[in-house]
TrEMBL record:
Modified residues (N6-(pyridoxal phosphate)lysine): K316
Cofactor: pyridoxal 5'-phosphate
PANTHER family: ACIDIC AMINO ACID DECARBOXYLASE GADL1, GLUTAMATE DECARBOXYLASE-RELATED
GO MF annotation terms: carboxy-lyase activity; pyridoxal phosphate binding
SUPFAM superfamilies, alphabetized: PLP-dependent transferases (SSF53383)
GO biological process: carboxylic acid metabolic process
Keyword Lyase: yes
Cross-referenced Gene3D superfamilies: 3.90.1150.170, Type I PLP-dependent aspartate aminotransferase-like (Major domain) (3.40.640.10)
Name assigned to this protein: Glutamate decarboxylase like 1
PROSITE patterns, sorted: DDC_GAD_HDC_YDC
InterPro entries: PyrdxlP-dep_de-COase (IPR002129), PyrdxlP-dep_Trfase (IPR015424), PyrdxlP-dep_Trfase_major (IPR015421), Pyridoxal-P_BS (IPR021115)
Region spans: Disordered: 1-23
Family: Belongs to the group II decarboxylase family.
Length: 504
């Protein structure tokens, strides 16, 4: 370090052990970089955090849950680039400028806590927000360790970053059980493996097949009935067909709560087929899993106890803060660890002074993970099982109310009776109401929902999703989750759609 290391006269430096009493020490400078003392003004940082928290409370919590505020303040991507000044520069901005950036980011973001946001299969509520902030300040597996304990009746095996990752874990685990040599020898050690899933399944199943080298063509889509449920007889036919081709079936994915129709596959019957053919049964219950907390609606998942693995997202119906996902495995032979373990001795020492079963890292594909289980734990502690059950029951009751209102109103047509919290319907403007059912009506109706969606977004009054389904023209898909939602809000949604689209 000769020529680069110099010491100057002594100066006062704060002692980490006793910040109130500075100590005398000689400054050390290496490569013109002073190394004595902190470079961050702690008091200024604390003041900045306090100001930031005030902005969050006022703008991201109070205003975001006020029905009088806009769900979104629409700006195009080009406008946002200018408004938010996304360019990065050599010099940092002032504290006041950063706080303004903070306000602008909140202002132009979609208010995910707003009760008139029915766009996706998730929402957030302000009573869960603390569970989102605290994990950013610490990293602890204690809560996950408790929720993973087999003696805990509220069992969560593993927390993962989203349902797509949970479904990928299921595919990988099922494949490992079928062909454990793949872990060391790669795909050359495996025959042609095939898996089966409903045509209504989440796209993450095909993504997992692509990512893991199974191939999307080896994902057999099983036909569904008119309500979107997998047809078990068709499943067995395709299993037998795959075997006759020389392929090796290894897994079936059943869906509990499909994304569009909210359909629940007949898990019990599918489990019979899986046992008969020795196939891993995974249930993607990311959306519909919350029905299990309701004694009134848990029948929707009849047979789920027979699944080999289950994916569930508390950040959906239960409104835990994003992201909060659970992956549950019935296996008792450490299959998850054997499948994913790399036995890194610099991390997972087996001679630690505490119970090493709390070291869950070697079961995960990731190394660093946030303690997302804390979010559902804190929310469950705060609300209790009864309140969570009431939220699910109320959401599904509200869905039934909306369905009945749709059937009463001229210009609205229900796609099907809802089984869960998905309400699918068409809005038919007055200009199309005299047309008979046929190609002309459906072709014109297909263009209606996108225009209404654009108008509601730019007005900021609410958010409701739309999509086509098979041969069906675009329709609206309402997702009811928030306990803030009232009957009056449902009426407003239908009134607003009519007001936005009656001139089409």
């Amino acid at each position: 370090m000769e020529g680069h290391h110099k010491e100057e006269k002594t100066s006062d430096v704060q002692s980490p052990a006793d910040p109130g009493h500075p100590v005398k020490c000689s400054p050390v400078i290496i490569d013109n970089i002073p190394l004595n003392g902190p470079t961050v003004n702690v008091l200024a940082s604390e003041n900045f955090i306090h100001q930031s928290m005030s902005i969050i409370v006022e703008n991201a919590i109070k205003k975001a849950t006020d029905v009088r505020e806009k769900v979104c303040e629409w700006r195009s991507p080009e406008q946002l680039k200018e408004l938010l000044d996304l360019e990065l520069r050599d010099g940092g901005e002032s504290e006041s400028e950063i706080l303004q950036r903070f306000k602008d980011a909140i202002r132009y973001s979609v208010k995910t806590s707003e009760c008139l946001k029915f766009n996706e299969l998730r929402s957030e509520h302000r009573d869960t927000t603390l569970g989102k902030w605290l994990p950013e300040c610490f990293c602890s597996s204690d809560v996950e360790g408790h929720l993973m304990n087999p003696e805990n009746k509220h069992l969560l095996r593993f927390s993962l970053p989203g349902g797509s990752m949970s479904n990928m874990y299921a595919v990988n685990l099922a494949r490992y059980r079928c062909c454990p040599d793949i872990k060391e020898n790669g795909l050359s050690a495996a025959p042609r493996l095939v898996m089966f899933t409903s045509q209504e399944c989440h796209y993450s199943i095909s993504k997992a097949a692509a990512l893991l080298g199974i191939g999307t063509k080896n994902v057999y889509a099983i036909p569904s009935d008119e309500r979107g449920k997998m047809i078990p007889s068709a499943l067995e036919e395709q299993i037998l067909s795959a075997k006759s081709e020389g392929a090796v079936p290894f897994m079936v994915n059943a869906t509990a709560g499909t994304t569009v129709l909210g359909a629940f596959d007949p898990i019990d019957v599918i489990a019979d087929i899986c046992e008969k053919h020795n196939l891993w049964l995974h249930v993607d219950a990311c959306w519909g899993g919350a029905a299990l907390v309701s004694s009134k609606h848990k029948h929707l998942l009849k047979g789920i106890h027979r699944a080999d693995s289950v994916a569930w997202n508390p950040h959906k119906m239960l409104m835990a803060c994003l992201q909060c996902s659970a992956f549950m495995v019935r296996d008792k032979t450490s299959l998850l660890q054997r499948c994913h373990s790399a036995r890194a001795s610099y991390l997972f020492q087996q001679d630690k002074f505490y119970d090493v079963s709390y070291d869950t890292g070697d079961k995960s594909v990731q190394c660093s993970r946030k303690p997302d289980a804390f979010k559902i734990w804190l929310m469950w502690k705060a609300l209790g099982s009864k309140e969570l059950e009431q939220r699910v029951d109320r959401a599904l009751a509200m869905a039934r109310y909306l369905a009945e209102e749709i059937k009463k109103r001229e210009g609205f047509r229900l796609l099907m009776e809802p089984e869960y919290a998905n309400i699918c319907f068409w809005y038919i403007p007055p200009s199309l109401q005299t047309l008979p059912d046929g190609p002309e009506l459906w072709e014109k109706l297909h263009k209606v929902a996108p225009v209404i969606k654009e108008r509601m977004m730019k007005k900021g009054s609410m958010m409701v999703g739309y999509q086509p389904h098979g041969e069906k023209a675009n329709f609206f898909r309402m997702i009811i989750i928030s306990p803030q939602v009232s009957r009056q809000d449902m009426d407003f949604v239908l009134d607003e759609i009519n007001n936005l689209g009656k001139d089409l």
